[in-house]
Every structure is written in C-alpha cells, then in structure tokens.
Design a protein that fits this description.
This protein is an alpha+beta fold and about 130 residues long. It is about 30% helix and about 20% strand. The protein contains four helices and seven strands, in the order H-E-E-H-E-E-E-E-E-H-H. It holds the Pfam family DUF4144.
C-alpha cells in the first residue's frame, strides 16, 4: 500500500504549539508548550509509534527511518498521520492521564473542541 502522508520539511514549520506527545500504550501524556519543550523531550527515549497532536488538531507521526535504536536522528521529520486521532480519542487519553496524576472523577472531563482539550492539559500540568 502506498504511503500518502505528507512529509513536513521541518518540525518548526508545520506544528502549532502547544502540542501533546502521545506514547502508544502509555497513559502518561506529555504537554509540550512550545518547540523548546519538544527539543528537551526529544533528547530522551521516543517510541517509534509516538504521535504528536498539535493545537490545531493535526496528528503527526515520526518518520520511522529517523529512529535508530530508540535515539532520534537530529534531523527528525514528522509526517502528517494518515489516520489522525479524533477528538474523542485524545480526550480519552487525557482522562487516563488525569487519572494517573491522581485526579478523580475523570469521566466527567469533557471537551467539545481541541482548545478545550489543551485547556484541560494545561490545567493538569499546572496542578
């Protein structure tokens, strides 16, 4: 099957900050307020299946050949995901994340917009 995703020329030109880094299979989410937060996070272990959900609602995935034994190529490229995350999927991840942080009644967390999801994430990071 032909990959029809679009390659971003640099991570700086397409991603609208803040963004949420989502590691597949983990409840912890990483709120990235800006590009500098990403650059710090990228120095650690990034799973090949990680996704980035930006504040405009676009989902990105890593270009797999940029990962070598868990270490990122310094010239990392993100691709726009062919299967973008839906708002309800991201909200579900945010609920699980809130629960791991010790918040109760996470089922009551609701959002109708991407902005509201990011408001919740910002609140969780500040509390």
């Amino acid at each position: 099957m032909k990959d029809t995703t679009q390659l971003t020329s640099t991570i700086h030109s397409k991603i609208h900050w803040p963004a949420i880094l989502i590691h597949t299979g983990h409840d912890d989410l990483i709120y990235l307020a800006n590009e500098q937060d990403w650059e710090i996070e990228a120095q650690g272990h990034i799973d090949a299946m990680s996704q980035l959900f930006d504040s405009s609602g676009i989902t990105y995935r890593l270009k797999l050949e940029d990962i070598d034994n868990g270490k990122l190529n310094p010239h990392l490229n993100w691709l726009i995901a062919t299967e973008p995350l839906e708002l309800k999927q991201v909200l579900s991840s945010v609920r699980h994340h809130a629960s791991t942080l010790g918040h109760c009644c996470t089922a009551k967390l609701g959002a109708n917009t991407v902005k509201q999801v990011f408001d919740i994430m910002r609140y969780l990071e500040e509390s």
